[in-house]
Design goal:
There is one protein chain. The chain is mostly beta strands. Among the domains are: about 105-225, Aromatic compound dioxygenase (Protocatechuate 3,4-Dioxygenase, subunit A, Sandwich), CATH 2.60.130; about 245-284, Seminal Fluid Protein  PDC-109 (Domain B) (Ribbon). The protein is about 5% helix and about 25% strand. It has two helices and 14 strands, in the order H-H-E-E-E-E-E-E-E-E-E-E-E-E-E-E. It has helices spanning about 30-40, 55; strands at about 105-110, 125, 145, 155-160, 170-175, 185-190, 210, 215-220, 220-225, 245, 250-255, 260, 265, 280-284. The strands form four sheets. Strands 1, 4, 7, 8 and 9 form a five-stranded mixed sheet that branches. The longest helix is centred in the N-terminal third of the chain and has 11 residues, at about 30-40. The chain is elongated. About 40% of the residues are buried.
Length: about 280
């Protein structure tokens, strides 16, 4: 994952050993994330729901590891499903219920494809242990699925899972982009003593976690094996900024009577107008 931003990072952050004063490379996905965050106030339009991961879970075909983005990020590894996955979880972004004990936890992030472009309508199916380390196998407590929004982002509101015997603290998740294979994996918490003894633990799946909001706030970005074409689309004849056009670094557009220069390759989305996202555009 991308160690240069605020989201899930591996143990060896790229550039961490660079010499003092050396320029720090800004990754394409980091800039895209900044642009996405800047557009967070724009109303989202959910894509039609893809075939759910639960429908493919019994196929027995293990998805290949997802590839890295072209900015040098690590891939999102697959992990075992474990014995407690249940199909048909309710669609919801919050797993909290009245009287549910535990430390509140919010997990946020983005889902990207192979060209580091955000993916809309990706299924994320979460399940986890409760505060005592137990899974609900009769109902759907602490289980739920959701879809990424038009910016490729997701938010999960839940509690910090308790310790299950023999395992370190973790969350389970299945991801599936429309028409693509299922990725089953797990997310981990940093600085957990059992991280050193859990044979399944993978440091590449560590979330970035901090205290805040009366509980804990975590972040992680996924990369799925979804082909994407980062090449530019047709530029409007008059050079006016337009939604759906794939711009390259150096492209020039006009918007509201002003000229702008593209800083990073991206496909224009609603809410990404040049004055709104200085991470992608600068005034010419």
């Amino acid at each position: 994952m991308d160690g240069s931003g605020t989201h899930g990072a591996g143990t060896n952050e790229p550039g961490a050993d660079r010499e003092p004063g050396a320029p720090r490379l800004v990754r394409r996905k980091t800039v895209l994330r900044a642009a996405l965050a800047a557009a967070a106030a724009i109303p989202v339009a959910m894509a039609s729901g893809p075939a759910l991961a639960r429908a493919a879970a019994a196929s027995g075909t293990a998805p290949e590891l997802t590839p890295s983005c072209d900015d040098g990020d690590h891939p999102t590894p697959e992990q075992i499903e474990g014995p407690y996955f249940k199909p048909n979880s309710p669609q919801r972004t919050s797993l909290l219920e009245p009287g549910l004990p535990g430390t509140p936890l919010t997990v946020t992030g983005y889902v990207f494809g192979r060209a580091c472009l955000p993916l809309t309508g990706v299924l994320l199916d979460f399940w986890q242990a409760d505060d005592n380390g137990a899974y609900d196998n009769t109902g759907f407590r602490l289980r739920g699925h959701q879809f990424t929004d038009s910016r490729g982002s997701f938010t999960l509101t839940t509690i910090v899972p308790g310790l299950y015997p023999g395992r370190t603290r973790h969350l389970h998740v299945k991801l599936q982009a429309p028409g693509r294979p299922v990725l089953t994996t797990q997310l981990y918490f940093p600085n957990e003593p059992r991280n050193n003894t859990d044979t399944i633990f993978d440091p590449r799946l560590l979330m970035t976690v901090r205290d805040g909001g009366g509980g804990r706030e975590a972040a992680f970005d996924f990369v799925l094996d979804v082909p994407q074409d980062p090449s530019p689309g047709p530029t409007p004849p008059d050079g006016t900024w337009a939604v759906g056009v794939a711009y390259r670094a150096g492209d020039r557009v006009t918007y509201a009577g002003r000229a702008y220069v593209c800083l990073q390759p991206h496909t224009a989305q609603p809410g990404w107008e040049p004055p709104v996202v200085p991470a992608l555009w600068r005034a010419a």
